């Protein structure tokens, strides 16, 4: 009893049939196969103005918010296309956009780490702590008793420098 047909990963269709292999063509082709192959090869040649992009393509591809924030660099790209070609203009646009995003990320991180540090006035923010150095009995100077802060300086978070 046969079950339903199994779906395979590769669902490609061989348009050239057996004529895609050189050996098959050398074995011999009928006149009908020669005509079909000539038509097939002729159909593979694209028109110089292809691909044709419809005028609504950009509007359908990008939502209004994305079109809004892409507009400035789109104008720059359109000005550069006659000078350097569409591929180079698109690449320059891509590099410029990613560079601007990287700079914004770096400035945001610097701002956050500068103005949102943890101190005694708030419970949030980033705080820096250092762990003791790992030491093993075979290390030189093994029983290190190095103290980084005095007893009254522990966990003050800037309270000792407060004007209050």
Automatic annotation (TrEMBL):
GO CC term (a single one): mitochondrion
Signal peptide: none
Transmembrane stretches, start-end: none
Pfam family, one: NDUF_B6
Single GO biological process annotation from the record: mitochondrial electron transport, NADH to ubiquinone
Identification of the protein by name: NADH dehydrogenase [ubiquinone] 1 beta subcomplex subunit 6
């Amino acid at each position: 009893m046969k079950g339903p047909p199994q779906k395979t990963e590769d669902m490609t269709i061989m348009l050239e049939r057996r004529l895609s292999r050189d050996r098959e063509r050398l074995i011999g082709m009928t006149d009908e196969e020669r005509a079909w192959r000539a038509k097939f090869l002729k159909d593979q040649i694209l028109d110089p103005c292809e691909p044709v992009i419809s005028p609504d393509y950009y509007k359908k591809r990008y939502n209004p918010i994305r079109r809004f924030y892409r507009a400035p660099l789109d104008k720059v790209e359109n000005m550069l296309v006659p000078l350097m070609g569409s591929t180079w203009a698109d690449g320059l646009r891509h590099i410029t956009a990613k560079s601007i995003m990287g700079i914004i990320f770096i400035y945001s991180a610097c701002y956050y780490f500068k103005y949102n540090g943890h101190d005694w006035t708030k419970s949030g923010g980033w705080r820096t702590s250092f762990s003791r150095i790992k030491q093993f009995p075979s290390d030189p100077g093994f029983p290190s008793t190095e103290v980084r802060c005095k007893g009254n300086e522990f966990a003050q978070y800037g309270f000792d420098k407060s004007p209050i």
